[in-house]
Every structure is written in C-alpha cells, then in structure tokens.
Amino acid sequence: MKLWIEYLVSRFDVAGRIGSRFVRGSRPMEWRSGVNAAPSRAGESANPDGSPCRQAYTLVEMMVASGLFSLVVLGILACHLAGLRFQQLIQPKLLNAQYERQTIGRLIEEVRCANSLQVGNGSLSTFTVAGPTNVQAGNALRIYTSTNTSQYIYYFHDLATATVQRVPFQSTSAAIIASAVTNHTIFAMQDFAGNALTNSQNNAVMSLLLQFYVASAWQGISDSVQVRTKVTRRNLL
Questions:
Q1: Burial class (CB in 10 A: 0-12, 13-18, 19+), 13
Q2: Model confidence over 61-97: pLDDT tens digits?
Q3: Tell me: the pLDDT tens digits for 159-188?
Q4: What is the residue-wise DSSP string for 57-107?
C-alpha cells in the first residue's frame, strides 16, 4: 500500500515573518507492518525514527543456502571420484605403452647394430641355442656386437614372473624392462616372407612378439595388447 505524506515546511518571507505551509511529498511511502517507513534497500527495514536497519536471515533462507552448499560439495566429490576411476581405467594402457617403448625401442637399435644374433631358450644362468633343423624361435636372444662370442647383450623372458629381462654388455645382473608379458616364445627368426626358419641364416629377420595383460585394482578393469615388430641387421655381408 502506497501513501503520500505531507510534511510541514517553515520559511521566512521577505518581511522576516515566519510562515509555514504543508508540502506534499514527491516520493511514495510504503506501508510496513502498520508503520509508515521510507523506502529501503533489500534486507533493510526502518526503525521507528525512520532510520534503516539490517534484517537477520530467516530459517528458510538458511535452509536454502545450506541445501545449495551441500549440492555444490556433492558435485565436487562426484567429479573427484569420477576422475579417480578414469585414472584407474587408463592406468593399464599407460603401463602397456611404457613397457612397449622400453622393450622395443632399445632392442631394435641393438639388433640393427649387431654383428650376429642367436635365438634359443634360456634363463639368467643358462642358454641353449636353437640348433640346425630346429625352428629358430625361443624365449631368449643373444646379440653379439662383434666376432667375439664371449661378449653379448642377452634378452630372455622369465615365465615365473612374466617379465622380459635384459643383461647388459659384459654384465651378469639382469634388469626388468617389461612386465605382464604372457607369451613365453617371444623371439623368432624368419625369412623375408615371414616364414619361420629351421636353420640359421645370415640375412634372417628377427621377429619380436609381446602379449601384455595388465589388471587393475578395480574390479572389471584390465587391458591387453599385442605388439609385433620385425627388424634385421644393417651388416648383412
């Protein structure tokens, strides 16, 4: 409800006499709780003397604000949990890519620079080369860098730990370069057409096959990948 108020204005005329008249206000007033008060900003009310004062929040306002804050917190937590699950989803893929780079990148360069190669079966302490008339395939590979057959780089697959290990040049200790490799026969010597050789040839192509399977701690999340590469020596003469 809007009212117009009239207020008394005192003035002096030219003769110095005091006069008064009622002037109608130009601003509408609002009726609040039965008391005329001047217009105020949101959240303010008028004191009996007309001065504005701040109002407190009501219970409904507090409940609405708390509800909105709770929704924001729940949304942040949901995004955080979704990010953690997505990380667990891609972690096996990242591990497989890492093992591929560590194994293939170094092995390809060493085979290209080799003087000769031997494929067979072996472990850290033993090695049996694939003899004549036998399929030139196995879980172990010796890379000779020169004509000295006592100096070589040794790769082998350990079935018990499902790892591919590398013994560096003139060393007796092995380092794991790939994990979660499920296939045991990872090395094979082939001809130019991809057929497995049954004897040693100077121009043979070394084929590497790795099958990875990485499981995650989260149930139902895993990743499997198969990597195959072929490489031959630069020095074929």
A1: exposed
A2: 889 999 999 999 999 999 988 888 777 777 777 776 7
A3: 999 999 999 988 889 999 888 899 999 999
A4: PPHHHHHHHHHHHHHHHHHHHHHHHHHHHHHHHHHHHHHHHHHHHHHHHHH
Q: Give dist(CA 73, CA 26) in Å, integer.
A: 50
Q: Which helix (H) or strand (E) holds 147?
A: none
Give whole-number Cα distances, 146 to 2, 109, 118, 199, in Å. Answer: 106, 15, 13, 21
* DSSP alpha helix (H) spans, the chain: 59-112
Residue with tokens 């049954």: 198
CB 25 within 8 A of CB 7: yes
- Side-chain half-sphere CA neighbours of 212 within 13 A: 24
Rounded to two decimals, the pTM is: 0.60
Structure tokens at 60: 């409904």
Backbone angles phi, psi at 90, to 5 degrees: -90, -10
